[in-house]
Amino acid sequence: MKWMNNVKRIPSALVLVVFLLLSASPSLAHKVKVFAYGEGEKIITKSYFSNGKAVMHSSLTVEDGRTGKILLQGETDKDGLFKFSIPLTAQQERIDLKIIVNTGEGHRAEWLLPADEYLEETGEDMQSETAISVSGAAVHTAKDEEQVPQSPARRQFSCDEEVVTRIVDDALDRKLAPLKAMLQQSRDSGPDFRDILGGIGYIIGLAGIAAYISSRKKNS
Amino acid sequence: MHISEGILSAPVLLGGGVLTVAGTAVGLKSIDTERIMPVAMLSAVFFVASLIHVPLGPGSIHLLLNGLLGIILGWAAFPAILIALLLQAILFQYGGIVVLGVNTVVQAFPAVLCYYVLRPGLSKGGNAQKIAGFLGGFLSVFLSSLFMALSLALTDTGFLQTAKIVVWANVPIMIIEGVVTMFAFTFILKVQPEILAWKSYWKDENHEVDE
């Protein structure tokens, strides 16, 4: 008989174990997120589920944000990353890129990357600015030292300026990338305790309303 | 198992909405005053179950427990799941308001099917009951996957291919749900058999309650 009692306890023990195992991973349910940023000449996209896990081997589409024309397609790697160099047309026409990730089983997310955001990174404006200042400097030297051919030292200097700008830009991009990723992820951290309790509260409230209505019906 | 906004075409969304309204109407009719609380409680369970995440497969899967709702509530699973999904859409941004109809049908209809198919097995005792409980969890997720694939296929991609992805992705959850549903059901049967929707069926047919 004692043996029987022990056998009867097995199911409830198993329930406990299963629930403990399940609740041991405090992660969240399905929702897909994608975000993108420019890094130098490239655009990096990262796709992940709401629990932070990477979206692996899913199709990713880059569209023109206004017309919806597909610019290019790709697949995320095992870290949920997909990198592509900025399409020439996008660069020239300053197209806002819409990046869409579709996991194929009903989950889809999109992210709009405005042209200003990624083009500034490649420094098109910056380059033209430096070009102007360089040419300005060139004019200046030409005036000052009319007979003397432009000194190699000065050319060296102006060239350095350009290079330094680029190096600083690249370094900043690299250092800021994880920060951007972190910001993005913290912005949509999954449901918190308040939301969960709130939802349960709503359900109880609705049940109360239903009970009230049905009791009034009974009385009348 | 929430379909995101912006995937399905308008006719599919509309169809889902119509079916949900019909199912919810039938469900609400089946709820009398004493059954309001069990329905609300199970709605809350369903609402929270999606937060229990199983780290298997290439992505992430979560519990559904629609089978449990089905075999306990019958048609009342429709309003219970509708409310829970609405709150999940508003509070967690899972799914969405526009796809609410389709998502509800995808999860509630298998639940009701399980209720009808498994009721004979569930009202028996012993192992038949346990197997029926397991199948309640297993089948409901399986059917939900198929319905989901169908609603995706009706929009664009081929049914077989999508169905393969969705069903395979959900195989682990089917097994887990089967086990959870089986234990939850046998537990409820012991502790609180009166919350079962077919309690009356039980009395009428003079079935014996296990133990």
The helix-and-strand class of chain A reads alpha+beta
Kindly provide the radius of gyration of chain A, computed on alpha-carbon positions and rounded to a whole number of angstroms. Answer: 30 Å
How many discrete domains of chain B?
A: 1
Task: Give the class of chain B from helix and strand content and strand pairing.
Answer: mainly alpha
Helix content of chain B: over 70%
Mean pLDDT of chain B: 85
| CATH secondary-structure class of chain B | Mainly Alpha
List low-confidence stretches of chain A: 20-29, 121-139
* Number of alpha- plus pi-helical segments of chain B: 8
Number of helices of chain A: 6
CATH architecture of chain B: Orthogonal Bundle
Classify the beta-strand content of chain B into a percent band: under 5%
Adjacency order of strands in the biggest sheet of chain B: 1-2
Major sheet of chain A:
4 strands, antiparallel
| Radius of gyration of chain B, in angstroms, nearest whole number | 17 Å
Q: What level of helicity do the residues of chain A show?
A: 40-55%
List segments of chain B where confidence is low: pLDDT < 50 over at least 5 consecutive residues: 204-211
Architecture per CATH nomenclature, i.e. the level-2 architecture of one domain in chain A? Sandwich
CATH superfamily of one domain in chain A: Macroglobulin (MG2) domain
Structure overview:
The complex is a heterodimer of chains A (220) and B (211). Chain A is elongated and about 90 Å long. Chain A is an alpha+beta fold. Chain A has six helices and seven strands. Chain A has a four-stranded antiparallel beta sheet. In chain A, strands 1-2-5 form a three-stranded antiparallel beta sheet. The relative contact order of chain A is 0.11. Among the domains of chain A are: 32-119, Macroglobulin (MG2) domain (Immunoglobulin-like, Sandwich); 123-182. Mean pLDDT of chain A is 72; it is low at 20-29 and 121-139. Chain B has one domain (10-205): Arp2/3 complex 21 kDa subunit ARPC3 (Orthogonal Bundle). With 211 residues, chain B is an all-alpha fold. Residues 204-211 of chain B have low confidence and may be disordered. Chain B is built from eight helices and two strands; from the N terminus they run ααββαααααα.
